[in-house]
């Protein structure tokens, strides 16, 4: 039996994969496609993480899909509500009918002679192949089967329970117990106030501070608009209000970091009072948005600190002991449970191995074209969201662009498109623009970006909206071609 042939294969059924499915169904209705999901459920990150308090760190007016407005009153939503929203969206538009669960793509080989990819797909113990004209990588960059935990001296001597949030056990009982959460990122900021409601006491142990700001979990402007306007209009206006306000805050942080530091500090002082040591515990050595600024809804972290349910300790770990953690200062933190919210492992394109005409290719050897495609890789897109704004904003723009590109190729009779950088004046810079540890550890595994367009990532929704919506495919970087000696692929439908 011949291998199955599809026009497009989407890898991953998280937010990016749903965006791709929607645009393929609506913008390219004649294309055959499937979404291959390695796990047995939709939702990606929002199904993987199950720890207490899991929630969005972006507002739902920008994290939500533009084609299906978020209508819940909470703009900072709980993880379970987000997962249901993603699942309901897939069902409403029939995207879920295109998903094949427990189908993990392990390899992709491109043949210029056939103008198609051959994907190696593992499903249980069975390995099969699928041929496709175009592949869209929507697997994000988090590694699902492994997380990052430093090598803590003496951790094997600790008599309590050690857990990484990525692998949260359903039966963990922490009521009345002493809990130490190691970390100061978004995961720790979520876990600490959530666990403090039932735990005896929770200590957030951080090696260095993080910028933290509070905002209400219900958008007051959206609430006001909702009294007078329909849900779709309210969503669109609230979305644009939040896009512009986030962009303003980010640009202000980059251009006037000292001013933003003072504003953040004033907010912290108002929340924590005059006696709390803000300099030690909430004043990082770097500027705002050198790393992500953490968001806490309704000041829940600060309120729990004021109540005495949470302690913040800024120090280095010397070693674990049988009953807790000894710090470099000599202090001993006693603990029944230690949560290592110490970061994630990254894995670009889900770890898929790539081969072009018999030659192995590494994603790290490519340059990102408009933040959507990769240099020297034919008919291949890699969808990533923003690092400084909601993931969905860029993912949806990228998927719309890809479908316009596919339609352009059909109109012109092309089978192949390959981004090519032949400008010797363009220099390489890292793809991801945050100085976070989890990014530094894996930067060499990712593609690069260039020093100017169309190879430069601006991390700016308005600039991408103009760039990707203008649909200029004649910028000199995209090379189009037809399959040698054959009619255009648009005339072929081969299904095994």
SSE inventory with pairings:
Elements: E1 4-11, H1 15-27, E2 33-36, H2 45-48, H3 60-63, H4 79-92, E3 99-100, E4 104-111, E5 116-123, E6 126-137, E7 142-147, E8 161-163, E9 178-182, H5 186-196, E10 201-206, E11 212-215, H6 220-226, H7 231-255, H8 257-272, H9 278-281, E12 294-297, H10 300-307, E13 310-314, E14 317-320, E15 324-327, E16 332-334, E17 337-340, E18 344-346, E19 353-356, E20 359-361, E21 368-369, E22 373-374, E23 380-382, H11 391-412, E24 416-419, E25 428-430, H12 437-440, E26 448-450, H13 461-469, E27 478-481
Parallel strand pairs: 1-2, 1-6, 2-3, 4-19, 6-23, 8-17, 9-10, 9-17, 10-13, 11-12
Antiparallel strand pairs: 4-5, 5-6, 7-18, 14-15, 15-16, 19-20, 21-22, 24-27, 25-26
Helix pairs in contact: 1-11, 6-7, 7-8, 11-13
What do you see in this structure?
The protein has 496 residues and is α/β, with parallel strands linked by helices. Helix content is 28%, strand content 24%. It has 13 helices and 27 strands. It has helices at 15-27, 45-48, 60-63, 79-92, 186-196, 220-226, 231-255, 257-272, 278-281, 300-307, 391-412, 437-440, 461-469, and strands at residues 4-11, 33-36, 99-100, 104-111, 116-123, 126-137, 142-147, 161-163, 178-182, 201-206, 212-215, 294-297, 310-314, 317-320, 324-327, 332-334, 337-340, 344-346, 353-356, 359-361, 368-369, 373-374, 380-382, 416-419, 428-430, 448-450, 478-481. Strands 1, 2, 3, 4, 5, 6, 19, 20 and 23 form a nine-stranded mixed beta sheet that branches. Strands 8-17-9-10-13 form a five-stranded parallel beta sheet. It has a three-stranded antiparallel beta sheet with strand order 14-15-16, with no helix packed on it. The chain is globular.
């Amino acid at each position: 039996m011949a291998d199955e042939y599809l026009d497009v294969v989407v890898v991953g059924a998280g937010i990016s994969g749903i965006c791709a499915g929607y645009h393929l169904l609506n913008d390219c209705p004649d294309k055959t496609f499937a979404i291959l999901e390695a796990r047995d459920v939709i939702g990606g990150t929002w199904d993987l993480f199950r720890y207490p308090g899991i929630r969005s760190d972006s507002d739902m007016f920008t994290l939500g899909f533009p084609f299906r407005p978020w209508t819940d009153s909470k703009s900072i939503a709980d993880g379970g509500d987000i997962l249901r929203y993603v699942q309901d969206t897939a069902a409403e538009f029939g995207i879920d009918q295109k998903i094949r669960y427990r189908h993990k793509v392990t390899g992709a080989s491109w043949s210029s002679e056939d103008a198609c990819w051959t994907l190696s797909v593992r499903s249980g113990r069975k390995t099969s192949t699928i041929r496709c004209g175009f592949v869209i990588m929507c697997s994000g960059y988090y590694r699902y089967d492994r997380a990052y935990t430093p090598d803590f001296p003496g951790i094997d001597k600790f008599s309590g329970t050690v857990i990484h949030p990525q692998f949260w056990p359903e039966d963990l009982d922490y009521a009345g117990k002493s809990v130490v959460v190691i970390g100061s990122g978004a995961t720790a900021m979520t876990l600490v106030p959530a666990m403090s409601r039932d735990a005896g006491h929770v200590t957030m142990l951080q090696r260095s501070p993080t910028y933290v700001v509070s905002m209400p979990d219900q958008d007051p402007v959206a609430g006001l608009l909702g009294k007078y306007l329909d849900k779709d209009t309210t969503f669109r206006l609230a979305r644009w209000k939040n896009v512009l306000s986030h962009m303003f805050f980010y640009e202000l942080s980059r251009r006037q970091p000292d001013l933003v530091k003072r504003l953040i500090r004033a907010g912290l002082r108002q929340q924590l009072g005059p006696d709390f040591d803000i300099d030690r515990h909430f004043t990082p050595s770097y500027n705002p948005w050198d790393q992500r600024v953490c968001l806490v809804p309704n000041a829940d972290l600060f309120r729990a600190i004021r109540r005495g349910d949470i302690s913040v300790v800024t120090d280095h770990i010397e070693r674990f002991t049988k009953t807790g953690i000894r710090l470099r200062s000599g202090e001993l933190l006693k603990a029944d449970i230690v949560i290592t919210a110490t970061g994630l492992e990254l894995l670009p394109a889900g770890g898929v191995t790539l081969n072009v005409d018999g030659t192995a290719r590494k994603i790290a050897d490519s340059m990102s074209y408009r933040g959507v495609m990769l240099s020297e890789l034919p008919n291949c897109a890699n969808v990533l969201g923003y690092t400084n704004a909601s993931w969905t904003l860029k993912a949806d723009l990228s998927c719309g662009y890809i479908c316009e590109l596919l339609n352009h190729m059909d109109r012109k009779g092309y089978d192949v498109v390959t981004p090519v950088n032949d400008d010797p004046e363009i220099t390489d810079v890292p793809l991801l623009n945050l100085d976070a540890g989890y990014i530094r550890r894996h930067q060499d595994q990712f593609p690069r970006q260039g020093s100017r367009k169309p190879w430069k990532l601006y991390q700016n929704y308005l600039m991408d909206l103009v760039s990707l919506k203008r649909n200029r495919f004649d910028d000199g970087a995209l090379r189009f071609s037809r399959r040698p000696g054959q009619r255009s692929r648009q005339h072929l439908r081969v299904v095994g």
